[in-house]
Amino acid sequence: MSFLSISQVTKAFGGLPVVNAVDLAIERGEFFALLGPSGCGKTTLLRMIAGFETPDSGTISIDGDVMNNVPPHQRPTNMVFQSYAIFPHLNVFDNIAYGLRKLKLSKDQLRARVDAMLATVRLEGLGGRAADQLSGGQRQRVALARALVREPKLLLLDEPLGALDKRLRETMQVELRAIQRKVGVTFLLVTHDQEEALSLSDRIAVMSAGKILQIATPRELYERPNCREVADFIGEINFFHATVREITDTTATVNAGLLGIVTLPSANLGSHGIKRDDHILLAIRPEHVRFAPDGVAGEITSATFLGERSHFHVKIAGRSEPVSVSGNAGPQGSAVALIFPPERLIGLPSAD
Amino acid sequence: MKNRALFIYALGYLAFLYVPVLFLPIFSFNNSQFIAFPLTGFTTRWYAGLGADAAMQHALGNSLKVGLVTALLSTMLGLTAAKAVTQYRLRGAAAMLGFISLPLFIPDIVLGISLLLLLGLLNLPLSLASVVVGHMLVCVPFSITVLIARFEGFDRNLEEASADLGESGWMTFWRVTAPLMMPGILASLLLTFITSFDEFLVAYFLSGTEATLPIYIWGQLRFPERLPTVLALGAIILTVSVALVIAAEMLRNLGVKKPMVGA
Ligand SMILES: Nc1ncnc2c1ncn2[C@@H]1O[C@H](COP(=O)(O)OP(=O)(O)OP(=O)(O)O)[C@@H](O)[C@H]1O
Ligand SMILES: [Mg+2]
Q1: Where are the alpha helices (DSSP H) in chain A?
Q2: Which range marks the domain in which residue B169 is found?
Q3: A217 and A277: one domain?
Q4: Could you give the CA distance from residue A21 to residue A9 in angstroms, rounded to a whole number?
């Protein structure tokens, strides 16, 4: 069994399921992210793992022990709260030492342990600071230190960087990853920021409306999204309606309307059970679309300079939505032609 | 022009509120048995007389006992009720609060008589304990009101963080909830104590043979020659009450500017 094993966990508030039959398996030492839009049930799932909410059904086990009836103060987990929940009446040192009372350490041992943790989160010398004299980044570090100092089996982080400005967030992402490598604790991070999830984690579960849509590595998620929602949520992507003409073991031929008849590797259709005559969606990332003279004709309606590559919206005849392309081309108003390399087209089941 | 009228109005209002009260200290230092102008001279003998008044001191002791017990019990009940109302999604919490506050709007005389009847029906003797029960009916709503205001700025995540860090419910209460609620708890203790200490009607009905201080004072009013002594006592009570109420108000506002949430 996996280190953290969640099986068919459901939780409803007032009759509405907020977490719906979720299965999740996380391995020891993993940096795992739970990614999803606001209100999709991420915090609720995390709170069930920490013990603050009880699942209506299903089981949660950590390191082989079923947790359903274990109260929060006896679980081998610690949590970094979305609001940090720093104790306002205690200074930094006492906040971090809070969870060590039961270990009955001597004064020196306690000091050594807290000081070591202060160093890990780079707050050396700030032990005497009052809680209300900390910056956002420092509060975040105190919350992290206070949880990690207890050496939990599993650390739960609820949007730990959400309250920080962009630059600090990027610095903290790097640090968080480094700290996780150093302490080796399993991290379960909740976020609605896809860049954060992609850059930090070993694996990601994408959640939407209480359900898990896909669990995969960042690269897989980006290159092989398994449904329209995941593809849409992770980065930018273009969709085209298409109909399957022919499928063999190696290739699939589809009628993609504006793009003509396209033959792509059948592996690109994934394992959705797509068959002949099915209506499907073809998806392609902006950086995989190419500007080339013999492609589909269009006109650049907006160009955003982003350094090495720019981002364009290209209007093509017969399609209302512009195509997103990243690459190099002329200014707004230029006539261009686009090529959609078949090996880069991903087939997904169409909702209708 | 308008501001001036408003200012005069405010001044008049304050005079109306406080001038009568000022007669108390003024006549308590007046060297005459009769409460009348002109003042005849300065004396502290009425205050000195209090020191030798054993019946008064006994009544004072009773009032302090009743006040302390009422304050402690009301604040404990108030604390649990305020916590329940603000932190758990209770069904019918609003209606319940309304019911708890109802004694505030029932005339004390009605409250006193009903409790007297009830104790009679139950064959329970009148004592200081029955006064405490009566006073709690009036004091618990005060306590709840003060403490709810305090709990509303309280981040529940703090208690969860404590549980998450290994502390059970009781230890969380001692290490997190109580310290953060302390200003509110003290304010509630002071307000309920003052309310009980000053209360006359309910105590009058329920005290039996033991007099509290307000009852003792009421009794003294039958003897005109005792009046200046009563004024001296009144002046002391007034001063202490005002000091306690100011202290309670300061405690209530303490730390309100600093947000109590963890953000
Ligand atoms: N105690 C509760 N009672 C009733 N509804 C709740 C409760 N907790 C959460 N909800 C509802 O459940 C849904 C999911 O909430 P949750 O906090 O898990 O979302 P989230 O994914 O963490 O969102 P965010 O990114 O905004 O933090 C929301 O619609 C929320 O209103
Ligand atoms: Mg959340």
Answers
A1: 42-50, 92-97, 107-120, 136-148, 166-183, 194-200, 218-223, 228-233
A2: 53-252
A3: no
A4: 5
Question: Which residues span the domain enclosing A252?
Answer: 236-349
**Segment holding B26, helix H or strand E:** helix B2-28
| Percent above pLDDT 90 for chain A | 60
CB A31 within 8 A of CB A47: no
Of residues A72, A88, A89, nearest to B164 (C-beta): A72
> Residue B161: its chain A contacts at CB < 8 A?
79, 81, 85, 87, 146
Q: Chain B: nearest CA to A281, how far in angstroms?
A: 44
Of the candidates B113, B24, B127, B133, the one whose C-alpha atom is nearest the C-alpha of residue B69 is B133
Instruction: Give the integer Cα–Cα distance in Å for A43 and A83.
Output: 12
Q: Do B258 and A163 touch (CB under 8 A)?
A: no
The enclosing domain of A300 has a CATH number of: 2.40.50.140
Please count the helices (runs of H) and the strands (runs of E) in chain B.
12, 0
| Counted domains in chain A | 2
- Cβ–Cβ of A150/B263 closer than 8 Å? no
pLDDT digits (tens, 9 = 90+) for B236-254: 888 888 888 888 778 777 6
Q: Name the nearest CA neighbour of B119 among B135, B106, B131, B109.
A: B131
Dump pLDDT digits (tens) for A280-330. 999 999 999 999 888 888 999 998 888 788 899 999 988 888 999 998 888
Ligand 1 centre from A226 Cα, in Å? 25
Judged by a CB distance cut-off of 8 A, whether residue B257 touches chain A is no
Q: What is the pTM of this model?
A: 0.78
**How far lies B37's CA from each of B30, B47, B201, B224, in Å?**
10, 20, 31, 17
**ipTM > 0.90?**
no
